[in-house]
């Protein structure tokens, strides 16, 4: 387990996170007193879907939903 000070942890936080993502652990100390331990997150096992993956049913709409509005409907909308 790697040990670092609070100041070093703030300065090199991205590097420490990379080490933790690789499976390591980091002990953060204030002076010589340990105050925190950074460990890899063990989530629920669910991951976000990849971009483009279909996650729900296709949206359905009426056949005439893109039809032009009639003059009466345009007047109702104030157009």
Topology record:
Elements: E1 2-5, H1 6-11, H2 13-21, E2 26-30, E3 33-38, H3 71-76
Parallel strand pairs: 1-2
Antiparallel strand pairs: 2-3
Structure commentary:
The protein is an alpha+beta fold. It has a domain at 1-41: YefM-like domain (YefM-like fold, 3-Layer(aba) Sandwich). The chain is 27% helix and 19% strand. The chain has three helices and three strands, in the order βααββα. It has helices at 6-11, 13-21, 71-76; strands at 2-5, 26-30, 33-38. A three-stranded mixed sheet has the order 1-2-3. It is elongated.
Concise summary:
The chain is α+β, with helices and mostly antiparallel strands and 79 residues long. The protein has helices at 6-11, 13-21, 71-76, and strands spanning 2-5, 26-30, 33-38.
**H-E string:** EHHEEH
Considering DSSP H and I runs of 4 or more, what fraction of the residues is helical? 25-40%
Rounded radius of gyration (Å): 28 Å
Output the structural class: alpha+beta
